[in-house]
Amino acid sequence: MDSKKLEELKKKxxxxxxxxxxxxxxxxxxxxxxxxxxxTGIYTCGVCGAELFKSETKYDSKTPGLIGWPSFSEVAxxxxxxxxxxxxxxxxxxEVTCKNCGSHLGHVFDADDSSTGKHYCINSCxxxxxxxx
Length: 133
Known about the structure:
Blueprint: H1 3-12, H2 15-22, E1 41-45, E2 51-54, E3 58-59, E4 71-72, E5 81-86, E6 93-98, E7 104-110, E8 118-122, E9 127-131
Antiparallel strand pairs: 1-2, 1-9, 3-4, 4-8, 5-6, 6-7, 7-8
């Protein structure tokens, strides 16, 4: 992303969104607006608006260490995200980014409590929500 686009984007995002979406940060657990959100609709990228997760794939995780952020069992479209190896913080994880704009969303883990065996652990501040009409 060129510096002019980046500066324009930063004006639209809160400091926390900048830290998470652009700098690969994580919001504090149990702090996100979508953790206990149960409306029907679609969760979209907080930067570009790409459709990422359907509300019916959101679930309450019971996996220790992954509780405290919105959890999804699958993506809305197979080409909505990109997975990247992430070995930061001395861990081997898969980072989840928006395939359209490259913004950091969270991480995906294997999980027994998910209907698909996948746990997309996503930062609320990386998302917007479009309610079904």
